[in-house]
Amino acid sequence: MFRIPEDSGLLCGSPAHAGVGLGEVANHMRCSNQSTKDVTEYNRQAWDEQVARGNRWTVPVSSADVESARHGKWQVVLTPQQPVPASWFPPMQAARVLGLASGGGQQAPLMAAAGATVTVLDNSPAQLEQDQRVARRDGLRIESVLGDMRDLSMFQDATFDLVFNPCSVSFVPDVLPVFEEVRRVLRPGGRLMCGFINPARFIFDEQELEQGRLAVRHRLPYHDATHLNADELEQLREQAEPLMFSHSLRDLIRGQIQAGLVLDDLYEDIAPDEALSEYLPVYFATLASKPN
Ligand SMILES: C[S@@+](CC[C@H](N)C(=O)[O-])C[C@H]1O[C@@H](n2cnc3c(N)ncnc32)[C@H](O)[C@@H]1O
Q: Would you list the DSSP string of the chain?
């Protein structure tokens, strides 16, 4: 899943973590609404650090992949392993695509090579730089925008034909503003593709899960900052793990409908290296469109 496996590399106390402490975030989560800014700041530092650590979701595609995409052969994921069906995509030649929280150089370069005009908005400068690195290497044009997926005010109404949002709304406390903003920036007939983590994933104790054991522990809705104890939060910080939030299926699915989108399709996916995937398709992806 998008939890970050323990790894060598930068640890707490590094300059990347000098800005916002997890203790502060946790206290704010418990005490005030001011927390969401802190979460965004904390997660920015965490994802920047994940790039330095070589986390799977920060490793760009190869030049060979880009070359294949130029010849019409490409696949991208919204979830750990199942490619997005080709039938979900509009014709990519000249399509205006927003990669929403999709920095890291995995999807934007392929869609750009396939002929789309691609903008990526991400909260992590280092993730955005991964796309730019590929663009320089392979002669692509990708526009990068640093920002929060809940605020797309830098884009005019009806700007995009496709918004592509790989598993990432679990890094923000509130998902409904994301769908509202996406509907606004989509042109009529435009499409939204999202990857999600099934909220059931969050009822289990994380450390037990990592050992392959399923121990039900948490009541939903789950937030790292309010459900973990001080030692566990410190461990998260040491591992530079971004803070995560479960969201209800109501918000993830009905939230899109409530925002004025029409749901067109859905598939489920697993991550074979995760114990829970033996029992449950932990991930799912939806295709929605903005009515004409
Ligand atoms: C699991 S990665 C997804 C990107 C990756 N290309 C993929 O294939 O899945 C999650 C991404 O969400 C971004 N992110 C987290 N919180 C965000 C926010 N509030 N606004 C925009 N992007 C955010 C992270 O910086 C990271 O690049």
A: --SPPP-SS--TTSGGGSS--HHHHHHHHHH-TTHHHHHHHHHHHHHHHHHHHT-GGGPPPPHHHHHHHHTT----BSSSSPBPPGGGSPP-TT-EEEEET--SSSSHHHHHHTT-EEEEEES-HHHHHHHHHHHHHHT--EEEEE--TT--TTS-TT-EEEEEE-S-GGGSS--HHHHHHHHHHEEEEEEEEEEEE-GGGGGB-HHHHHTT---B--PSSPBHHHHS-HHHHHHHHHTTPPP-B---HIIIIIHHHHTT-EEEEEEEE--TTSGGGGTS--EEEEEEE---
Domain segments of the chain as ranges: 21-289
Task: Report yes or no on whether pTM surpasses 0.85.
Answer: yes
The CATH fold of domain 21-289: Rossmann fold (3.40.50)
Instruction: Over range 204-226, report the average pLDDT.
Output: 95
Percent of the chain whose pLDDT exceeds 70: 88
Interval 109-114 mean pLDDT: 98
Q: Is 45 in the pocket of ligand 1 (CB under 6 A)?
A: no
Ligand 1 centroid to Cα of residue 204, in Å, is: 23
Ligand 1 in contact with 2 (CB < 6 A)? yes
* Substitution candidate for ligand 1 out of 38, 41, 47 with most atoms within 8 A of CB: 47
